[in-house]
Specification:
Helices cover 49% and strands 12% of the residues. The protein is of the alpha/beta class and 559 residues long. It has 3 domains: 6-101, Arginyl tRNA synthetase N-terminal domain (Gyrase A, domain 2), CATH 3.30.1360.70; 130-179 and 257-427, Rossmann fold (3-Layer(aba) Sandwich), CATH 3.40.50; 434-551, Isoleucyl-tRNA Synthetase, Domain 1. The strands form 4 sheets. The chain has a 5-stranded parallel sheet. The chain has a 3-stranded antiparallel sheet with strand order 1-3-2. The protein starts with 5 loop residues before the first helix and ends in an 8-residue tail after the last helix. It binds one RNA strand of 76 nucleotides through strand 8, strand 9, helix 12, strand 14 and helix 17.
Amino acid sequence: MRRPPTAVFLKNMIDLLLKLINDAATAYAGPGIQVPMPGIVVPPNENQGDFSTGIAFNLAPLIKKPPHEIAAGIAKNIEGKTADMIAGIDVVKPGYINLFMQQAFWHDALASVVEKGTDYGKGDAGKGQKVLMEYISANPTGPIHVGHGRGAVIGDVLARILSAQGYNVTREYYINDAGNQVLSLGYSVLNEYYKSRKIDIPVSRQGEYQGAYIHDISDALESAFSPADINEEHIQRITEFSVNRILDEIKEVLGNFDVGFDHWFSEKQLYQDGSVSRVIGELEKRHAVKQEDGATWFLSTLYGDEKDRVLKKQSGELTYFASDIAYHENKYTRGYDLLINIWGADHHGYLPRVKAAMSALGYDAGRLAVMFVQMVRLTRGDKPVAMSKRAGEYVTLKELVDEAGSDAVRFFFLQRSHESQLVFDIELAKKQSQENPVYYVQYAHARIVSIFSFAQTKGWHTDVLKQNRNYAFSGQEKRLLSQCLLYPGLVKEIAGRREPHRLTHYLVDLVGILHKYYTDTRVVDSDADTEQRLLLMKTVKIVLKNALDLLGIHAPEKM
RNA sequence: GCGCCCGUAGCUCAGUGGAUAGAGCGUCGGACUACGAAUCCGCAGGCCGGGGGUUCAAAUCCCCCCGGGCGCACCA
């Protein structure tokens, strides 16, 4: 058997196949026709081939011929040129081109995956573009809840995927540590402190936050303040103390959830360094501001928003919108090619004004992309769980992760499109924890590890497995390999379209094929082909491990 | 009223122009004296909310309607 040159090994076999189809289609279409990149799928039935492309459908409107005729023409161009890669071509019904691959193709494919190892699935589609991803950014006025958790996982996984595809990603959490909300937190804590100690001192303001965590913070006050200093005169320091306590807890919860950040960006800093007033001044200079009813307005209607928005209230206070403008302006000045925000769907009405402000300041609002994550509705059984942050009655992310485990919660959130609402039944999540799909996937990884340790006890040298290129892969084995071969293209597509949930579905599909194969086939046997089957298992394991890493889910050696 | 999202199997959801529409859970019935049964196999379950349209081809695109969620602050 002829061994392909090293360069071929380093190349993804699917990419080679796509190029081959593309070349054949280009030759068929003739000059002046821009042939789109062909898509490739594994057809539903084995007798329909190993791979299938619908390129003829895409070409039909361009060259105005029936798909079937085009498919036949392209197939003819493929034939003959590729004896070492393609064993047979079928042109079927509406216009599919079905491809049957040579055994050599499968051996090359397997070798290329094994050689890439942990790099398999990585790519350079991002071309080093700088991306800032902002997600969660929950107010530090209370523990983060499951809705934040959903955004956290989606942001975290997308960041991992973009990084793997050659984007230069920075992850950021914007802390709303200025303004009315956090001050209210401070007052809540102070009032609670007096109340729990039965101290009767009037406070000028009630806080709006309740719950055990307020009590906990109030209890902790004495660790940082002498009792004589715990009063309204020091409300700023008490507020700061409270915010820091909550931020510490948020960081701890996120740490246990494997969600990380490069930067924690403080809103307060934007006030302290003058950014907020500067940016308002800049808008004034650009004639995008008016004074009316004693307030200062940004003329966002000039830039497509439904109505103008207040920057400074009658009271003289600045709105959160004002600091949000400063924050986003700051992002632009840091030189990112792309800004991705992950917001709760209840904020969708907020986007036009932010984009309007960026346009008004002369920035390209098109570089700001917001993914709106739909609501999570919690139930216990069929009873809805009341979610009221102010009343302090809601299920926290910490509780959920403690109950179901980080891996399961992440996987669960990643099975749904971020654009779909989801009902999270806590009872069900607990009850079904053993049958959760995440275990299905993780079990496959543990199973392969187990196969390898068994093979070693049988005397196989699993670290120096040698390919036998005369080995003929079975139909099931080719299915397993072809699924593995689709992986890099999938990761690339997920990065481009920002659809992280597709990765979990891919894994469930892959693992389904694996488990069935395992049931039907004895991997470790006494025959020489054991080595080839072990190589196949190694291939699958590489894909599983790499994909689980992108999901931030543990790939266990045993369960 | 206007805007965004959703409506697919009993439930929770994938599939967004192409081959007989899929998975998990739930029901029922099978498979362990050899590599992990957290697995596998089988049965049942769908006018893809409804109606028009575009197309060789529609769950997918367009229009209208119905139903649900979320927004529409000098709150965030």
